[in-house]
Amino acid sequence: MTAPALTVRGATRRFGARLAVDGVDLDLRGGRITALLGASGCGKSTLLRMIAGLEPMDGGSIHAEGRLLADAAHSTPPEARGVGLVFQDYALFPHLNVAGNVAFGLKDRPRAERLRVALEWLETVHLADRADAWPHMLSGGEQQRVALVRALARRPHTVLLDEPFSGLDRHLKSEVRQTLMGALRAAGAAVLMVTHDAEEALLMADDLALMDKGRILQTGVPEEAYLRPVSPAAARLLGEAELLAAEVRAGMATTAFGPMPAPGAPDGPAWVMIRPGDAFVSTEGAAATVVDVAFGGPFIEVKVHAAGQTLRLRTTGSPPSIGEAIRVALDADRVRLYPRA
Ligand SMILES: Nc1ncnc2c1ncn2[C@@H]1O[C@H](COP(=O)(O)OP(=O)(O)OP(=O)(O)O)[C@@H](O)[C@H]1O
What we know:
It is a single chain. This protein is of the alpha+beta class. The protein is built from eight helices and 19 strands. It folds into two domains: 6-237, P-loop containing nucleotide triphosphate hydrolases (Rossmann fold, 3-Layer(aba) Sandwich); 242-339, CATH 2.40.50.140. Helix 4 (140-152) packs parallel to helix 5 (170-187). The site of adenosine-5'-triphosphate (ATP) has 12 residues, from strand 2 and helix 1. Pfam families: ABC_tran (PF00005), TOBE_2 (PF08402).
């Protein structure tokens, strides 16, 4: 793998007694999109702002391309970091037209060249024909695309995106996402995208960093993080996850919904983490009672009860009735086991 374009080591930021960012390590690589995923208030924006140079560091360091950008004693000004930042609200200059916005960061070049380069960048996001428009004449998705190429035109080694799609409706989101990803990959910069949307992170990212209470819980490719979360907290960040109490003995975990293999797990209390698709109705399964049924569009969500525990599972076809006795099995290849204190 290529050397990181930007490295964060031990990044720490305190607000009074509160540790908003608590010893974070992160590597960002050129041409790869890293999604920083975490719940509201976990410290994502503060970390992003530290990398951008908008927030001081209380501890740790940030290096890019072999040079120190910041530590507790030193801070390179934001404009000298080679880091581009795209805000949630696009923040286009209202007094400049679209081409002027993109050309803004190219001040060191002759005027004609600035315009030519701006048009080339606008082409990459299919907006060259709107070069003369004013920002207020554009849709949210178009403004977001202009904001991105304005950042990319300066050829940053790293681009930071703060919730880039949160202002867009669902239909626009996937369209803008495709265009933006194409432009980002073509630019070859390292990208860090902050989001609290698990689906967006899974769909867009080459690498994921899961953040909780100021710390990075796990980094890795999306599939690995989704299928093998390091903890229940990491599992929950990536989608619905239920915990069932279990007892492990001699490599078998016993749950209210039947036994499952637990090779190598120590004897004692454990949690079994189950995603909605990992439990299913099966004639071979454990006896359970249906306590709730909900229509979910492509699936039916069924809540079942057994030995004092409840579990949600998904099924298709005709829905069972409340009170009905059914049998439920767990997909042993997909469920995960964690120690229970
Ligand atoms: N300038 C500040 N002064 C005091 N506390 C702050 C400041 N900025 C952030 N915090 C606190 O630090 C913590 C982390 O905030 P941050 O904005 O980084 O979280 P976040 O994960 O980006 O949340 P969101 O997704 O809601 O934007 C929060 O508890 C927040 O209240």
